Amino acid sequence: MKTLLTLALAATALTSAAGAAELQSFRIEKGRYQAVLGDCMACHTKPGGALFAGGEPLATPFGTLVPPNITPDSETGIGDWTKAEFRDALKNGVGKDGKHLYPAMPYPAYHLMPDEDIDDLWTYLQTVPPVHDAVEANQLPFPFNQRFVMRGWNLVNFDPKPFEADPKQSAEWNRGAYLVQGPGHCGTCHTPKTMLGADETDAALQGATLQGWFAPNITGEKAVGLGDWSKEDIVAYLKTGSNGHAIAAGPMVEAIQDSTSLMKDEDLQAIATYLLSVKSDSRSNAPKPLAADDARMTGGDELYRVNCSACHGLDGKGAEHLFPALAASAAVQQDDPSTLVNVVLAGAQGPHTKDRPTTPAMPSFAWRLNDDQIADVLTYVRNSWGNAAAPVSADAVSDQRDGD
Questions:
Q1: Does residue 245 have a known ligand-binding role?
Q2: Boundaries of each Cytochrome c domain copy (predicted)?
Q3: Which tens digits make up the pLDDT trace of 347-356?
Q4: Is 190 annotated as a binding residue?
Q5: Tens digits of per-residue pLDDT, 308-359?
Q6: How far is it, in rounded angstroms, from Cα 297 to Cα 68?
Q7: What is the model's pTM?
Q8: Which CATH class is domain 295-401?
Q9: 171-277: CATH architecture
Q10: Binding site annotation covers 352?
Q11: Is residue 186 a known part of a binding site?
């Protein structure tokens, strides 16, 4: 009898242990997906570096920050943090020992995440191989390097309310709103900032300059936003890095490779549904295209034919998934031409994704065209084939060439 009881108790213990292991595995997988939704890799992993061991310097208007090591290394990572400290960092911007974080770590967006999702992310990060790599995250000049100043910033700019679903909208719309506003933190790049570095909430997702690139308008506005894209177009872009309208470049390449291309299809569809519903009127006084006989247009036309038309076509329609269309392009017509200037000066390489592994590329023209020529060809592109946007100045090109 005792033997049978002992066996029964052992079987119960094994069953309980198996159930606990299964639950732990489930939470780790959920946490891994939270890391995908939050695009943690893009900031916290250097190209070719160890996973989450620290990222490349991030230039901000206030100075340089470096995304820190978030592996479970006890000395240089978060190995000696508690789950509560980790949750406080993501939701309130306060890390270990009460150290205030800067909003480059987007806690103003992450605070919308439920505690359970953050705890799952914590559980996943504990499974990442620890890497001993000390990172000096705060490289800001005085007085911005004094973290206590963030107390005042938070009082003025941070309202830690939980996400509230809109009962008038569908479940898909609400999921998309949560992903865009919360873990996806799209506004961190795509929303213009105040002088203090906070989001201009009345211009949400209408485009902003970031490290010399312009993260474009991603509202449902036509011409400069996504209003001319279908839901399927947005899903394809986020999943593969290209569609019939655009090919990702600059920081968006990492966001697609490390985050959106790995998201569930239903989450991509929810994001698309939400973005198309966001309305803006950033161009209430839409610009008129320059006259065809303007000297910048005639000069730009000749430069375009010689340097650009072989890939993008004389009609500006490009070749789908290889050379982005320039005609009627929202990316081309943004108020800030920084991204266009960067692409011409430095070239660009599209994302490498599972569904589209071939990465389209554009060579640098910095060696071939001077500042005036780049300004003219971009002015021509921004005012041809249905486009209308302000001319590009040679000074703007010169500034970006010099790294200003």
A1: no
A2: 14-129, 171-279, 295-385
A3: 999 999 988 8
A4: yes
A5: 999 999 999 999 888 999 999 999 999 999 999 999 999 999 999 988 888 8
A6: 47
A7: 0.92
A8: mainly alpha
A9: Orthogonal Bundle (1.10)
A10: no
A11: yes
